[in-house]
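Shift notes (night). Ran DENN domain-containing protein 3 while the centrifuge was going.
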Amino acid sequence: MVDTVPSGLLEACVVVGVSDEHLTELCQLQGKDGELPPVEVEVLQVHAPPFVKRESSIDGLESSHAPAFSRAQKRRSFKKKRERPISFNSDSASQSAVATSEDLSVPQNIDLMALQQLCFPDGLRITNESREDSYHFLVFTDMFGNQTHGVVAQYCKPVQFNQDSVMHLNGNRSSKLQRLYTTYSICVISRYPYYNALRDCLSCFLLQLKTVRMSEFEETVKEFSAKLALVPIPPPGQLHVVFNLRPLGIELPSRLDADRPVVDLDLHLPFLCFQPKQILQIISSLLMEHRLVFLSTDWSKLTLMAECFMIFIHPLRWQHPYVPVLSRQMLDFIMAPTAYLMGCHTSHFDDVTEEIEDLVLIDIDQGTVISSHTPELLDVPQAAKDCFLFRCQDLQLHYDLELCNSSTHTDINDVRAHRRRWQHTLNTVIMNVTLELIVNIFSDVHEFLNYEHRVFNSEEFLRSREPEDLNIYKKVLDTHIFHSFLRDRLNKRDDAFTRMEMSHRSETRRLRAMTECPRRPTIEEIRKFSRPENGLNKRLGMSMPNLADDRALNTLVRQMSMKTMFSQCGTWNRSRSIKTFKLPEFPPPLAFQYVQNYYSDLISQLTKAIAMATPDDSALLARYHYLRGLVNSVAGRRVDALGDFQSLYKTDVDIFPSQLVNTLVDSLPVEERQTAERRTELKRLISRVKRDNEKERARPLDGGTIKRFELPKKHLHLDDFVRRVQESGIVKDLGTTHRLFDALTVGGYTAQRTNQSVRQGLEATSQSVFYLKMEGQQKQVDPEIFCFFYNFWKETEAAAQDVELPAVVLEHLECNECVYKLSSSVKTSHGVGKIAMTQRRLFLLTEGRPGYVEITKFRDIEDVKISSAAFLLLRIPSLKIKTSLRKETFEANLKSECDLWHLMIKEMWAGRKMADDHKDPQFMDQALTNALLMDAVVGSLQTQKAIYAASKLSYFNKMKSDVPMMVPKTTSDTLKHKINPSLDVTSPQAVDVLCYTPGQLGVSDLDGGGNPKLWCAMADGKVLVFDATSWSMQNSSVQVGTSRLNCMLAVNSQQLWIGSQDSLIYIINPRSTSCNKHLTEHRVAVTGFALEERADKFSQTVAYSCSADGSVIVWDVSMLQVKRQFRVSCDGLRSIQIHDGMLWCCARDGLTEVRRNGSVHRKVSLPVHLSSSPGGFSSFLLFNESEQLWAGFADAGEICMWHCRDVSRPIIRIQLKDCAGVVCMIKVKKQIWAGCRGRSAAGKSRGKIYVVNTERCIVEKELIAHADCVQTLCSAEDRYVLSGAAQEDGKIGIWKVE
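Came back to this:
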């Protein structure tokens, strides 16, 4: 949401120049000796909103309200001595143009002392010749980092005065008229960087000043300022504001997104002044927070160039002093001991370099970038650099080339409009190119973040970088700019970086994100990166490959054309049409009544625009509502303003101005507050604003702390150990971490059972193993052993990165396989070589002539045992593996490695069997993690107890031998797959709601993709999106509030409704997976939806929603407006359905059939034998063809069926074996799938699905679905059923429908 209070275009207008008094003195000096000394610059006028008040109106009524787009500014007094007006020409009627009052009222945040120097950075002199008008740009930053922006126009005015009388030879006296020229500066200050627009405004105003009498000068400036104060700032999005300031039409572009700054300058200017490689050097210097000084002979270029680079590094934000223009008197600023970005005139080059050594000097005029302390500047990482240079080749930077095939425009405004369109397109391209550069530099950062503990593992991140890129990364990681970037990533900020990073993430990386496997290069990556023609390093921990030559570019960069990149960037699609809204002609801006009439006209125009906008274009409708609410607020119509801002919930809540609305609510008089509270929607808005304001105050001001991962220095108890392991990124699962703790503390049990001498012996031989010094003391892990374990794990991981596999081996492996373990060279029954383990198989890398010999896939293993082989007089430990595909047994003389490989292979074998039986690939991933942890435990302990300690991690092998889990054949045949949506958290989360949306033909991947999607609602308002063709996570989670989600409904291809426990209905766009609409009419938790089928293609789609208090609201889907609402008398309304034009409502105490007007038609009570059931009805289904009503019960293991004609009592009861209660039901073809709470033989809760044939009224299938109750079911086009489990299981099952 937009949190800043919006204001008008003008913050202040300041006139700076030489005062009348000093000008008179200078003229006298000129008459004496003819030389012109430097002039002292003074502030002559300050104009800031508000310009009119009600007491200036005709009726004389008083009010403190000031109708202007401005903040409530604190003001201070700027004192200057009284001045005497002088005459500028022979016209005695002319009065002083710049005579000011003794006391100027100045906004608190404007420093006038600095402004005088910045308006005349090279000083002011009275000259004998006139100068052309010139412009330059300023940026002001206060101590809190808030910026305002200024555009300065310098223009010359002639000064005529009479010199002292001269005595001629004939005795007569005469006066000589002298003409000099002085310069004035008009500085327009705005909160927003509208550099081009404000320059255009000043250009129009200077034309007006040419014809204005000097006596009217001050009033004319004030009127100009007051007009600019009437211009509203457009909200982020597609709507630009246009106003007329004769002779030009001025256009204010909006921000592209709420998180992007306003861009109203030419972003291609740096590309005209510098080569792309030099632009990269400047960007790298910014990222490393060097001290940068821009140099130019043209003051206007300094700020424009600096602002371009600020946009180039977005979303990173410069955190240090930022003064793009330094006047002659301000050069001592470069002595600041911190990093900074400043700019000065080229003539000061020697002064700057003599004073300071550690500088990056950027000469804009010469196009050079040099460092005063190092021969060469560090460059950005090579892969990102090559991609950026390639993109720059396609930039069309010259507007003249665009005009070659165009006709000549005869209207100046047409010429300007054509240029703006070209510039907007080019700016979009450049922003996408530079954003892609930042993404390529930092795209892997998220893989080294622990969100729960807010830890960044910087050492591992550096270890994954290319050697030649280490220097720049080491410097960048210690900067404030990167720290702020990390904080945004840990806060999961959805900004342009996140959207582009997700859109560029490969399918392989998305699939890898859905597993718990440690980082290893896949065979696909090895094939991709190991080609010698690509010239790549073996280490693969980088975001992009080397793009040094065309062959590498063809493999990656050319996969995405420039046109494709524009849309994939996740920030702005240039194909989105830009709309403009033209403001009415400005009134006399200093008369209250005229200003009020102007606002009335503006509101009328916006009302017409809202009426003409189509409901499908909700984004444009939201911008109109926003502008009208803004105008209503400054016009004093607070209640109407609140109504407009309330409309943003249904159109685009992302631009909701929460701070402005909060200010409006606080400023409501008693009468207006009562009026607002009589409107239901405004009453809810006021209460919601107060609630959100309280939450905002409770948030930490710094956005949360960030920690760097460090190895422990103290002994670790279990809780500390779990936190450290999770921070390290080794493993997240809580159960696995506990088993690892037991493995590393296996010495503790020994010490507790042995005597003192044995304990001392353990101390001497294995100091890193934990033991207990006193009876009953808790186990702890020594920091030394933790360091050994961590380093061994990381070294093994790094070694796997550098594994070189021959091409003949790669041909036998699947694309997503990784080599996780290599043995030493051993003798086997298939020859001498190294045994390699992937997540699917074991194979032998033969020595001598490199070759591949398949040993076995894990699913084909029949037995694994340790034996011994004779070697001379010795017996060498060997490992025997019997497989179903070969008669002979594979044997390998693994010697000291035999016990470890035996443990690992048995765990992988058991995990593979569990994964196949349960159709759950996570079991295999977890078994692989267990095997690698065994390897790390043995490698770090190096004691006789190491193998015993590693056996503590043998989870699936023990489960297989201790409690054989046979999956019933019916379940195994019906279950197709399982996915785990809780991989990014330490413990499973309940799957509360599932919703399947079918694919859409004709929808490209650039527009959200046409593949079917599965929407999964998890805890605390998190919604995950899966591609239903590959079951890969499609995007990062969509956050919809912070409460539990209860229901979902795919209303149409553009709206997915989600009902929340917080009483809101959130609307997600399935294409963009963004949530920017809320329906706020319900008071309590939303529990169900129903969609009424359209009678014909011309009728409107109608949706129903219900809440727990019995409220039912009927919605016009296209307009998102309430058609009617009523309340059903019941105990806890749970769900609703439409049947034969009637609405059926399911509550705990009964089923109610309701007419369209809300009146009750009939009611179905609980069956007699369940009348005392506390849970009551849980769900129900209606079959139109057979007119059957089926219902399940929350705490009874049965389903009942009524005939819709007679609902007095059920005609059929179906008992569900081992069922404790029905949670949910769906109909699929002629079947009912019921998700239930089952009971196991051991008395534990488990999730069961019962498939009921509605024609034969029998249970066809009883499926053992989950380890906890089934929370939700949904159908995928009647071909598959998807089930979601409660918290103990937290997985999604995919079932085949027969």
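The chain has six domains: 1-229, 257-379, 382-568, 579-698, 803-962, 1169-1298. Residues 59 and 213 are 32 Å apart (CA to CA).
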